[in-house]
Amino acid sequence: MNPLSLLRIEIVKRPIFNLLLVLLAALGGNLGWSIIILTLFVRLLLIKNSAAAANMGKGMSDMQPKMKEIQEKYADDPQRMSEEMMKLWKTPGSNPLKWCFTMLIQIPVFLGLFYTVKDIAEGRYNTEAYSFLSWLDVDLGNLITSFYGMDLLTPNNIVLTIIAAVLMFGQMQMMTMLKGKQATPKIPGLGGGENMPDMSKMMGMMNYFMVIMIGWFVWTMPAGVGLYITTTTAFGILQQVRQQRPMIKLKLGMVPKSSGPEIIEP
Predict the structure, then answer these.
(1) Separation CA 105–CA 255 (nearest Å)
(2) 150-162 pLDDT, tens per residue?
(3) For 66-90, how does the pLDDT look when each residue is reduced to its tens digit (9 = 90+)?
(4) Residues with Cβ within 8 Å of residue 184, at least 6 apart in sequence
């Protein structure tokens, strides 16, 4: 077995399959609920990091006046402007890589679930169960694969695709709202410092790209994998709402002005 196949089986597929096997045994072979519980388990393991990533919106909003101040203060010194900008991006709560890390760390789970569901759909049931789980009584050829009218082993489920796309759009819009209007910092050393493309427009384009990409994934992959994507997106939205409730109320104008000191947004 070559190293890549060993990595795919032992690191990506086998742990996820065995965790799913335990859930299937506990839930009477119901694949849909097993995938949902698996998803929630993974998200709860990552909740500390995802909570830090959820704070990124506030950190990005706080950066806007500081970026403008640096641009004005060092307008005649592009090198110093660049150095100060780099320092600003390294401050806590301003690094967008935290959100990316939360997404990237879920890729092995996504791939492991994809390979597992694909094998079950194609009738390959020898999926490397751990020896200490040999006592589990799970018939992979006789699972409950129908979940609220969806066949979790087949692709092209239009209802799940629409739900996943709508949830992703809502999540991206909420993140954009919490970040506020993005500044368009100058690029030092390029013809006297031309402005970068409008960051708000770039974020809007990225939102639509993510919605299309997620919709395409859910449409083309087995519905069981789409159920994982939909559940993890819904979890992310609920966590964001719970963590950023005061900021969301403020952005939506749900906080009366008389309820406290005036808050001036950047």
Answers:
(1) 36
(2) 999 999 999 999 9
(3) 777 777 777 777 777 777 777 766 6
(4) 195, 196, 197, 198, 199
Which of 42, 29, 20, 36 minimizes the C-alpha distance to 128? Answer: 20
Phi, psi for 129 (deg, rounded to 5): -70, 145
**Do you know the residue count of the chain?**
266
Q: What local confidence, expressed as pLDDT, does residue 60 receive?
A: 55
Q: What sign for the dihedral angle of Cα 111, 116, 118, 119? A: positive
Chain-centre distance for alpha carbon 123? 31
pTM above 0.90, yes or no: no
Burial zone of 168 (CB within 10 Å; 0-12 exposed, 13-18 middle, 19+ buried): buried
Count of CB atoms situated within 10 Å of the CB of 148: 8
Instruction: State the DSSP string of 176-206.
Output: HHHH-SPP--B-TTSTTTPBPPPHHHHHHHH
- 57 in Cβ contact with 244 (< 8 Å): yes
Question: What are the tokens at 41?
Answer: 């388990």
